[in-house]
Amino acid sequence: MHGFRMHDFRLPSTVASLTAACLALTGCGGAESAPDAPTSPAASSGAAASSAPAAALTVHDAWVKAADEGMTAAFGTLVNHTGAAVTITSASTPASPKVELHEVAGSGGEMTMRPVEGGFTVPAKGRLELRPGGFHIMLMDLAEPIRPGDQVAFTLRLAGGGTVEFTALGKSFQGANENYEPGAGR
């Protein structure tokens, strides 16, 4: 294993307090039932399912392309469990000081990578696949090598201020060598 290990992340105390208050109000509701309270976003690591019930957004089968230096990318499936679209505005990881949300698009017969304007939007009750040749999380300048088997921690920032934390498994992969759109990410 390498230096990027998953840590025990806990819900912020304000979210825990809000959840407790909603549960207390639900118990005092009488004949009317309280609407479902939003829960804090949670995520899974790799292929494991989230242990947090009714999480707003989860990340499944997360992996990152192993690399010695320079750039690499993270992939997986973002699953929205809510009735409203969820927008991811940015991502971060200790593995790289600069992280961008990217897409691969055709331009003049050549596939190029470029930042996604406005972030990734996961539709209500839907999924967004992060995959080579499509949407992905781009690590622009690795702090140290990512080896197969490494666990790399990530934090996604959501529109509205929430965050989702997950880990991605380092994997050897020969693809995902697209070019950059001139001026993008450099």
Automatic annotation (TrEMBL):
Signal peptide region: 1-33
A Pfam match: PCuAC
Organism of derivation: Actinomadura rubrobrunea
The organism's place on the tree of life at top rank: Bacteria
Protein name: Copper chaperone PCu(A)C
Record's keyword terms, sorted: Signal
